[in-house]
Design brief:
The complex is a heterodimer. By secondary structure, chain A is of the alpha/beta class. Chain A has a single domain (2-231), classed as 3-Layer(aba) Sandwich (Rossmann fold), CATH 3.40.50. Chain A is 36% helix and 27% strand. A six-stranded mixed β-sheet of chain A has the order 6-7-8-3-9-10, with helices on both faces. A four-stranded antiparallel β-sheet of chain A has the order 2-1-4-5, covered by helices on one side. In chain A, helix 3 packs parallel to helix 6. The N and C termini of chain B lie far apart (74 Å). By secondary structure, chain B is an all-alpha fold. Chain B has helices spanning 2-32, 39-56, 59-86, 96-116, 142-164, 166-183, 188-209, 211-214, 220-235, 240-260, 265-279, 309-323, 325-328, 331-356, 365-382, 386-408, 413-433, 435-438, 456-478, 481-491, 493-498, 503-529, 539-552, 559-574, 580-594, 598-610, 616-619; strands spanning 132-135, 138-141, 444-445, 531-532. In chain B, the strands form two sheets. Chain B has a two-stranded antiparallel sheet with strand order 1-2. Chain B has a two-stranded antiparallel sheet with strand order 3-4. Chain B has 27 helices and four strands. Chain B has two domains: 2-220, no CATH class; 309-610, Orthogonal Bundle (ABC transporter involved in vitamin B12 uptake, BtuC). Helices cover 74% and strands 2% of the residues of chain B. Classes of the chains: A alpha/beta, B mainly alpha. The A-B interface holds A 12-13, 48, 50, 69-72, 74-75, 80, 82, 86, 88-91, 95-96, 98-102, 146-147, 150 and B 166, 169-170, 172-173, 175-177, 179-188, 287, 299-300, 617. The structure holds adenosine-5'-diphosphate and magnesium ion. Chain B: It comes from Lutimaribacter degradans. Chain B: This is ABC transporter permease. Chain A: Keywords: ATP-binding, Nucleotide-binding.
Chain lengths: 233, 620
């Protein structure tokens, strides 16, 4: 459903992604793993065309999206949940969701605010509160909910478990499992295996912008030396 | 008591147009980060278009219909401007768009002149609202009462749009993080266009609504601009309630000012603004501006380096050619070159502040005109010899800059820029209104250089020495440890502080120094003309300098000088034609679109591509 082929991305002169190629199949949860600075965020941004790859190709549902304006990429059904969350702190929870709202496309789930409030009960109570009043965990929920309002068919989750309490991480695992059961495809990034182990089918490991491993989670579990070499504990 | 209430009502009525223009400016800035200098021009267009429509459409319905249509038409014109002029330059360095909007001012000025002629147009009466009503015995124009009622409705409609509709939510979201809004599938380009059109439409509506009170004339654009900036800054950039409250405060104060202390009217609003900003640095309802918060990107700055031998030789040859000018150039050429040299020094002083310090001053004319006035006043009132007055000009300007900088440098970004503008306007108002001392509008005449300098050629050499010397000195300082500290403070305040640089002190010094050099240019100017008028302190003068610095290239050391020389030269040719503003405006817009790195920056890129110059990368 999503395919990167030989993607090279730069920040000015710094070469950050090096011939990166991998695919995400429909219905899968793929974990993009790597240490801090490995290039995970840049990969996500290169998919969204927030960083435009200097060479290589990104295809989504058979369509070449390289160089396409970001808003069009999103409209095709790619949802992006950035690492820094970037919720609109001056807007209320309900308004944050409104910004994310897009009409459903063929074959995608049609989310409503009420369904999302069922999925994230904490947000329901705070729908009138401004973004800046939310806790870190609530903000993370809100970013995901906001992206789901766009009825994406594939969601990019950049380090969803970063900096939130273990209880919430647990909740997040359940959310992702629910989404997967509903047929959503997910590409998530993490620095370690804890979270990925609970939800992912496949793993791609990168280091210094170069791919080091690509396979199922079982394969990765069978090779602890790979994990030790490229991941944080 | 009756008079008091009547005045209060008039003040509130006057607040209407001001609020509409200010809220439009504020909205546009919030989303696009563009300070739309052309906003006053859309206000003026609203008045003219409204005037024409009222002539055509009859009766009460026609009158109000014409006003609404005028707002709509101006909104459409704004949309065109956004698509044709601003879209191509959103990717240019921050604040570059500002120069494009200045080009738009010039174009609109001439188009209005062509369409409606130079005469002021008397505002049509509003059918059914002619005359006054008596409130506690005091007359209040009926139309004022109408405005009083209409404005809150416009404000309410805006409030509804911004808080209760999807568009409003998107606009507010984009004000905070436009890149994220794009990543959620919203086409920012149309959001920008829509907001720009809305903002311009509001300005147009304001212009049309004030027709029965003020009519339409070609000075409206600049006349309202200062008040609008003041209102937006007092209220807080991006805040609609703030804009409303500030518009009311300023308008009411103004009405009372006119009655009780007529000399103070222009000064009054700046005093309020300074007071508000001292207590609330981001205005009454404003939010702190955090640099880089809005997903702006730019190429990393190239390191500057001392000129190579080649460049030095080139500069020396240029100076030699200038020095020989009296041998081959006419008297007129020498006068023109004198003008250009003075302007180059003025622009270079602003460039120092802007390029190296990252401090965008919208009011640099205060120090140029200030220096000139220091010299002029000393000669006029104290009989000071020209030489001494000339030396005291930069010192006076530098001192003024020190004091103003002390206040302004508490703020950053656009608030800093606005505050510098306010101080420049304050100075201008002082000079303009304090006629007994400064000569007011009539200026000061008879300020000729000393005997040994009189005549075109001696004064040309005098100017050459000080301008070239001044520019070289500015360059020298740029490469000194002080210059490095200034750039360090610009690039990262925190890192600079960590390495032991007192950023505030460095900036204060830089601000004073730039003021000093502008004052030097002012001193040269006043004795080259033999007179000085308040317009040397005006916004337009400040903008002239800003424009040439941006067009020349902010990121190149020679940008200010090249821009100044180029535009003074072009201006000299163009002003011989009737519609020179149109040509100049189009030229400015053209340069902004075609050469987003400025003239010098773009030439250098071309040269590098052609292999004439070595690439910066290869050297590092
Ligand atoms: N905006 C940027 N400008 C320059 N370099 C950057 C920028 N963002 C990230 N980098 C660099 O790119 C590399 C990859 O960063 P990133 O994609 O954020 O890694 P990760 O998300 O895996 O931690 C790092 O070396 C980082 O320093
Ligand atoms: Mg990251």
């Amino acid at each position: 459903m999503l395919e990167l082929s030989a993607v090279n991305s730069f920040y000015g002169k710094a070469h950050v992604l090096n011939d990166l190629s991998f695919t995400v199949a429909r219905g899968q949860v793929v974990a993009l793993l790597g240490r801090n600075g490995a290039g995970k965020t840049t990969t996500m941004k290169s998919i969204m065309q927030l960083v435009q790859p200097r060479s290589g190709k990104v295809t989504f549902q058979g369509q070449d999206i390289t160089g396409m304006p970001t808003h069009k990429v999103a409209k095709l059904g790619l949802g992006y949940v950035p690492e820094e969350r970037r919720i609109f702190t001056d807007l209320t929870v309900a308004e944050n969701l409104e910004v994310g709202r897009q009409p459903p496309r063929d074959g995608t789930y049609a989310w409503t605010t009420d369904m999302l409030f069922d999925l994230f009960p904490n947000l329901a109570e705070r729908r009138g509160n401004r973004g800046k009043a939310l806790s870190g965990g609530e903000q993370q929920m809100l970013t995901i909910a906001r992206t789901l309002m766009g009825n994406p068919s594939l969601v990019l989750l950049d380090e969803p478990s970063e900096g939130i309490a273990p209880v919430i991480v647990e909740q997040m695992v359940n959310v992702i499992k629910t989404l997967k059961a509903d047929g959503l495809t997910v590409l998530l990034s993490e620095q370690n295996l804890h979270f990925a182990r609970a939800v992912a089918d496949m793993a791609v490991i990168i280091e210094g912008g170069t791919q080091k491993f690509n396979g199922t989670l079982e394969e990765l579990n069978a090779h602890p030396e790979i994990r030790d070499a490229y991941l944080s504990i | 008591m009756g008079l008091f209430i009547a005045q209060l009502l008039t003040g509130l009525a006057n607040a209407g147009a001001l609020f509409m223009v200010a809220s439009g400016l504020s909205l546009i800035f919030g989303v696009t980060r563009i300070v739309n200098f052309a906003h006053g021009s859309f206000y003026m267009l609203g008045a003219y278009v409204g005037y024409t429509l009222i002539q055509v459409l009859p009766g009460v319905v026609g009158f109000w219909g014409a006003i609404l249509l005028a707002g709509l038409a101006v909104g459409l014109i704004g949309m065109l401007v956004e698509i044709l002029v601003l879209r191509p330059v959103y990717r240019a360095p921050e604040l570059f768009q500002l120069v494009a909007t200045f080009g738009v001012i010039l174009v609109i000025q001439d188009l209005a002149l062509m369409t409606w002629g130079p005469e002021d147009l008397l505002g049509p009466r509003s059918p059914g609202l002619v005359g006054v009503v008596r409130i506690m015995g005091e007359p209040v124009p009926k139309y004022d009462i109408a405005l009083l009622v209409i404005t809150p409705f416009v404000a309410l409609a805006l409030w509804y749009l911004m808080t209760q509709t999807r568009v409003g939510v998107l606009v507010r979201a984009a004000t905070q993080d436009r890149e994220m809004v794009g990543a959620l599938g919203v086409n920012q380009a149309w959001l920008f266009t829509g907001v720009f059109a809305l903002g311009c439409g509001l300005a147009g509506l304001g212009g049309a609504l004030q027709l029965p009170k003020g009519g339409a004339d070609l000075m409206m654009d600049f006349n309202i601009l200062t008040a609008v900036f003041v209102v937006v800054v007092i209220g807080g950039m991006g805040s609609l309630p703030g804009a409303y409250l500030a518009a009311v405060i300023i308008s009411v104060l103004n009405v009372f000012g006119v009655t009780y202390i007529p000399q103070s009217t222009l000064v009054l609003m700046f005093i309020v603004m300074v007071l508000v900003l001292m207590i609330r640095p981001y205005g009454l309802f404003g939010r702190e501006e955090v640099a880089g918060e809005h997903g702006q990107v730019g190429e990393p700055e190239r390191p500057i380096k001392p000129a190579g031998l080649q460049v030095r030789l080139l500069v020396a040859a240029g100076v030699a050619a200038l020095a020989a000018l009296p041998l081959y150039g006419s008297g007129f050429m020498q006068v023109l070159t004198t003008d250009i040299l003075i302007f180059c020094l003025f622009a270079a002083s602003l460039h120092f502040l802007l390029g190296l310090g990252g401090l965008v001053s919208f009011g640099h004319a205060a120090y140029f005109g200030g220096g000139a006035y220091v010299a002029g006043l000393l000669v006029k009132h104290a009989g000071t010899p020209m030489e001494l007055a000339f030396i005291l000009a930069p010192l006076g300007a530098g001192l003024g800059a020190f004091i103003i900088g002390w206040v302004c440098l508490r703020l950053t970004g656009v608030y800093f820029a606005m505050l510098t503008l306010a101080f420049a306007q304050l100075l201008w108002s002082l000079v303009f209104q304090w006629g007994e001392f400064t000569g007011g509008d009539d200026g000061i005449l008879g300020l000729w250089p000393a005997k040994w300098l009189s005549g075109t050629t001696p004064y040309f050499y005098f100017t050459l020495v000080f301008s070239v010397g001044g520019v070289l000195f500015l360059r020298h300082v740029a490469h000194s440890p002080f210059g490095y500290a200034l750039r360090a403070a610009r690039d990262s305040e925190r890192q600079a502080e960590a390495t032991g640089i007192n950023t505030r002190r460095v900036r204060m010094l830089a601000f004073s120094f730039a003021g000093f050099m502008a004052g030097l240019a002012g001193g040269l100017f006043v004795f080259s003309k033999g007179s000085i008028f308040p317009n040397e302190l005006e916004i337009t003068r400040s903008f002239d300098a800003l424009i040439v610095v941006f067009l020349g290239g902010v990121k190149t050391l020679s940008g200010g000088i090249v821009g100044a020389a180029f535009f003074k030269g072009v201006e000299d040719v163009l002003t011989r034609f009737e519609y020179w503003r149109l040509a100049m405006g189009l030229l400015i817009i053209g340069v902004v679109i075609l050469a987003p790195d400025g003239i010098v920056g773009t030439l250098r890129k071309w040269a590098e591509r052609l292999g004439v110059l070595k690439r910066a990368e290869d050297e590092s």
